[in-house]
Amino acid sequence: MIIKYSHTVGILGVLDKTMEASCVVRNELGIGKDERPLHIPEQVIYAMTGNRYDKIPYMPRPFPCGIWQVFMPQERKSKFLAPYYIPTNAKQYCDVWELDAEGGYKQVTFDKVLDHGYGLHFSESRTTLGCIKIHTKDDLVTLVGLIRATILQNQVVTIEVTE
Predict the structure, then answer these.
(1) What's the whole-model pTM score?
(2) Which of 3, 8, 87, 90 could be disulfide-bonded to 14 (CB atoms 3.0-4.6 Å)?
């Protein structure tokens, strides 16, 4: 099964269904309706490197374009990920940021970090840290059912993400 998502269109398609989705990322490039950046300079985000001891500051980026494998949905209780998080193997290199004396963002460095942990989920928040946000819980539950059924039949699920 192939899931398709376009950053530009904001529609996720799977089989004969379409769902509203978005990837509004809380970083220094995103501007809110009030013309202020979507990120809070003092709220540092650390890359998901797979090593819980890594504390590498970076600015999140949108879900990377490409074709990625989708894995079995996981139940979540967090208000930002509930009721399900759908993991993928998407990853991308992002710029590492230097922090100022107070621990907030100072400036971008020449270093890169391989960030992963990109997935699909519902959230009441307007922004994500790079994941694709499904706009309604009902659509998310439908998507979870389709993914589970496909994976339980030993078939691969992929997501194709385009600009």
Answers:
(1) 0.92
(2) 3
Question: Both tokens of residue 137?
Answer: 């819980």
Lookup: tokens for 49: 């490197």
pLDDT of residue 51: 80
Q: Where are the domains of the chain?
A: 2-162
Ordered DSSP codes for the chain: -EEEEETTTTEEEETTEEEEEE--B-STT-B-TTSSBSS-TTS-EE---S-TT---EE---PPPSEEEEE---EE--STTT-SEEEEB--EEEEEEEEE-TTSSEEEEEEEEEEEE--EEEE-SSS-BSSPEEES-HHHHHHHHHHHHHHHHTT--EEEEEE-
Higher pLDDT pick, 43 / 116: 116
Considering Cα of 6, then 9, then 10, then 15, what sign does the dihedral take? negative
CATH number of 2-162: 2.40.440.10
Tokens 């904001």 belong to which residue? 10
